[in-house]
Write a structure and sequence with these properties.
The structure is a homodimer.
Chain A lengths: L1 H7 L8 H11 L3 E3 L6 E3 L1 H20 L3 E2 L5 E3 H4 L3 H7 L4 E6 L2 E9 L4 H11 L8 E10 L13 E11 L2 H22 L5 E4 L11 E8 L5 E11 L1 H6 L2 E3 L5 E3 L1 E8 L1 H10 L16 E5 L4 H19 L4 E3 L7 H10 L4 E5 L1 H6 L1 E6 L5 E5 L3 H26 L1 E3 L3 H9 L4 E5 L4 H11 L2 E6 L7 E2 L6 E2 L2 E5 L3
Parallel strand pairs in A: 3-7, 15-16, 15-17, 20-21
Antiparallel strand pairs in A: 1-2, 4-6, 5-6, 7-8, 8-14, 9-10, 9-22, 10-11, 11-14, 12-13, 17-18, 18-19, 21-25, 22-25, 23-24
Chain lengths: 481, 481
């Protein structure tokens, strides 16, 4: 009874995907609504997940030669205004500090929506010569973009992210860097989060405010909507000119630097939930799960308890050397309640240990993703569990990729396009003439946008889905979060 | 010549300690002034140091059972006002957001100066039963306290810190927690940073706004001033009552929780610099130094270069398994310039490798703290360097402790007190009657404040240094940052 009631508390995906999403977050205690419009609290379980994501991504960012630094939260209004497109893109979303202590500020300070302008002001001071280049900086920080609605992890007024900011001697180097970091993100999503992504270039309408070109990785979620997983911008010399970032080149000439910026945020947690979750709750990939294994002792008689606890402690001690392990000895709840609880929390592997396991020197293992069960001999459990976790990591990716392939539609008429968007949604591959007006018209008609022009899609002759003009461009359309 | 000029760029401590401090920070590239009043930029070398401090302290915080979480940057004005002393203490320093996007906010939002009020509002939602206690939360975050002057790392409008927030069933548990975390800080300072501290309780005048009692650890810096290294507050039920944080106790009764909060900030970097630094620059303790060892190849002829580089690479490969190592192969600068540069940056151990070292299969080692030199056989270098780094860690602590002991004065008259404060400064041990008015008068006369009432100082009969009344209290006075 208790177990049944517990599971019934989560709305099923089919019934209401959006309520399922919120239910899972609140009940797994990943996050909670804060009493400030648009803001959320990341609770310990959600933050432990974020710390793992950070650790893995930070390592990749450092391995590619970047160093972390920290720049001020506040940006003077005049700085934000230096790059015309940039201010236009961000000012509707800026929170303004107008008072400090008792004094009214002469110039309002923006709470950073992104840090290009403050970082560029420092770059112009630090960069003098070609010897100072490339300058490869990353920052982990909170940023604020005013939102009217809250969608936990996906759309909140404040969120956490990393933002890379680099300056280079040549245009080629900057372009190479922008692509390199997009590939770092792709690898992070696909290998560590088991989330397949489509990498490509954004259209002019959808690029970052102030960028020359924006690249993105796009995820197809279980409800058929797209989510932008990360972006990498080739900023060209737009900011260099606005902030006068120049260097003396090898040839003695004074030149503007070429820049990039790139970011991934706590949105990835939303992508994780909505790619892998099911009606039992979260399903977390082993590489980033706060706990990879939970062990649940099962005993009825007090006389069994000590024997079982000893065996559990022994197993836990061995496994802790290799895995992130939690032992749930709570005696308030039944094992069945705990099974549900840890399934809800998405722990990749559950180990049940009862009198039978102790007697046979085994462990009884349930994998979260497929919900299948198997026994391992205790003596072999470490290599078996290593293989199992690897298999879960891979199976989750394969399942998500299969789902995406099954929900990617190549369409040739606007009617078909509309029908798909209205019914199942998904990724739509369609010809597009390259004109921004057609793009906007399609959006108005269908609420789908061009997510990007995927690198992996070869040029193909076709007719623009909106205006019918001949074109070689294939665009990835979807309804997006 | 080049080397001489380089060192001359740093003001000597004796000439102007305050300029020495700023010179070292700017030239070692720990931080830079930001173009916003009161704000700083933490540059990669300074941030790498902060990351190491974070890692070490975070581990201790987690080991004592706390979990990290993240709460909103913004706090509604009405929340800050709920605890009367709290708002009075902080409101002169608050930065206010009054505009979000295009709309003027009905209620201004404070940029968090500290997070008690927002966290308490969530605690009141999360805590229902004694089973939910203790609730042990920590947050790594940026906070803002409006400052008119900037002193890099010591006093900036925005700074980084961790803030622990806990709720307990009983008064005793809360008190135990407050003391436990003060001891965690003490161990962190003394074992990891080699900084001796004096732990004690703050006076009523100096306690945290809203606390029942504040504990602190106090550092004596090389210029004879004190710096508060960290604080831990027993909040009693002040916030529990203001935010209505209650739980159903074992006995079925509804009760208010007992709380603590505690924090350490980027100020510790200031403490590190001013405790250990010398006229050559930074001296960093091995446990937290971004690089523990720097290797500098020394060659004159191109024919030596390859041989030496091979040997250097071999040494570096071995050492990297045990230590944080940087190999400086830059060919723009002379070895002498590099020696100065890495001394300035405070790297604990420098290894010089020239033709002689290659030939004799040795490494030539200079320790930063004592500036002494020694050769090790390559075959023994790992254990030798391990011992050396441990010795540096310990020697730095001993030196700082000796300095503190030599600069702690027990005084019995106000004249002596004033003479010490005016001349050498230092820690002053003096009797105090316990009356806040005497404390304030002493401050007005001497600009020295009571840092804390040290735990290690036994009760001792004496007469209040100001009013002459009989007392058992001995207080630690100093001029503080």
């Amino acid at each position: 009874m208790e177990e049944k009631k517990f599971v019934e508390n989560i709305t099923s995906q089919k019934e209401d995907f959006s309520r399922w999403y919120t239910d899972v977050i609140l009940k797994a205690k990943l996050a909670d609504y804060a009493p400030i419009k648009g803001c959320m609290v990341i609770r310990p379980y959600g933050y432990a997940l974020w710390e793992n994501l950070q650790r893995v991504l930070d390592e990749k960012i450092k391995k590619t030669g970047h160093e972390n630094a920290y720049f001020p939260l506040f940006i003077p209004k005049s700085f934000l205004e230096k790059e015309a497109e940039h201010v236009e893109g961000f000012s509707p979303q800026v929170a303004w500090v107008t008072k400090g202590g008792d004094e009214d500020l002469i110039e309002p300070l923006a709470v950073r929506p992104t840090s290009e302008s403050i970082i560029c002001s420092m770059f112009s001071k630090w960069i003098q010569s070609w010897r100072d280049l490339p300058l490869l900086i990353n920052q982990w920080a909170n940023v604020v973009r005013w939102e009217k609605e809250t969608r936990l992890f996906l759309r909140t007024t404040e969120f956490l992210w990393q933002e890379g900011h680099t300056a280079h001697r040549t245009q080629e180097e900057a372009e190479e860097e922008a692509i390199k970091m997009l590939n770092v993100y792709k690898e992070f999503f696909e290998k560590d989060l088991s989330i397949p992504v489509v990498a490509g270039v954004k259209t002019e309408n959808e690029k970052f405010a102030g960028a020359l070109r924006t690249y993105s990785i796009e995820v197809l979620l279980a409800d058929g909507r797209a989510l932008q997983g990360g972006t990498s911008h080739n900023l060209g010399q737009h900011f260099a000119k606005a902030f006068n970032i120049t260097f003396q080149d090898v040839d003695g000439e004074r030149k503007y630097v070429w820049q990039t910026s790139w970011g991934v945020s706590t949105r990835v947690i939303g992508a994780l939930i909505m790619t892998h979750g099911d009606d039992f709750g979260l399903v977390l990939p082993p590489k980033v799960a706060p706990y990879q294994i939970v062990i649940i002792p099962i005993w009825k008689d007090e006389k069994d308890k000590e024997k079982i606890y000893n065996y559990v402690d022994d197993v836990a001690t061995i496994l802790r050397e290799y895995f992130r392990v939690f032992v749930d000895k709570d005696e308030e709840h039944t094992p069945g309640w705990k099974f549900n609880e840890w399934e809800l929390k998405g722990v990749p592997v559950r180990i049940e240990i009862g009198p039978r396991e102790v007697e046979k020197e085994e462990i009884f293992v349930a994998r979260r993703d497929l919900r299948t069960k198997i026994s391992y001999k205790k003596i072999n459990m470490v290599p078996e569990l290593k293989n199992l976790l690897e298999d879960i990591q891979k199976t989750m990716f394969d399942k998500a990729l299969k789902f995406r392939n099954e929900n990617t539609y190549e369409v040739e008429s606007l009617e078909e396009f509309k029908r798909i968007i209205d019914k199942r949604r998904g990724f739509i591959k369609a010809s597009w003439c390259g004109n921004g007006n057609c793009e906007i018209s399609i959006k108005e008609l269908t609420s789908a946008t061009i997510r990007n022009l995927p690198f992996d899609w070869k040029e193909e002759k076709g007719k623009c889905i909106f205006c019918g003009k001949d074109t070689n461009i294939k665009a990835l359309f979807a309804k997006a979060y």
